[in-house]
């Protein structure tokens, strides 16, 4: 039995797109102010013992900056998740007049 495919009339070959690397000075956009400080609100690590997020949660220390947390091996997805659930808060460094983050996830020094 032959595998017969219908011929497409007028089909043009697709052109390959070229991938252009971004210069190093333009890579990455900070989701958070890297100098904003973190405050741990959970009395103990709320993550499942032994999982990767449990290990990364142990990187948090009160008053450490987001930059230090990321250098220690933490990820922004951890900050997002933990802020939404009230495990941590980040320093409120919004500009005056801008829409503020949720109150439970921020603090002002």
Count of runs of 4 or more consecutive helical residues = 3
Structural class: alpha+beta
Strand order of the largest sheet: 1-2-3
**SSE series:** EHHHEE
Radius of gyration: 23 Å
Distance between the termini: 76 Å
Mean pLDDT: 75
Report on the biggest sheet: 3 strands, mixed
Question: Strand-residue fraction?
Answer: 5-15%
Outline type: elongated
Describe the structure.
- By secondary structure, this protein is of the alpha+beta class.
- The protein has a domain at 31-98.
- 20% of the residues lie in helices and 8% in strands.
- It has 3 helices and 3 strands; from the N terminus they run E-H-H-H-E-E.
- Strands 1-2-3 form a 3-stranded mixed beta sheet, with helices on one face.
- The longest helix is centred in the C-terminal third of the chain and has 9 residues, at 76-84.
- The protein is elongated, with a radius of gyration of 23 Å.
- Mean pLDDT is 75; it is low at 95-100.
SSE blueprint and pairings:
Elements: E1 38-40, H1 52-57, H2 66-72, H3 76-84, E2 88-91, E3 106-107
Parallel strand pairs: 2-3
Antiparallel strand pairs: 1-2
Brief overview:
The chain is an alpha+beta fold and 109 residues long. The protein is built from three helices and three strands; from the N terminus they run βαααββ.
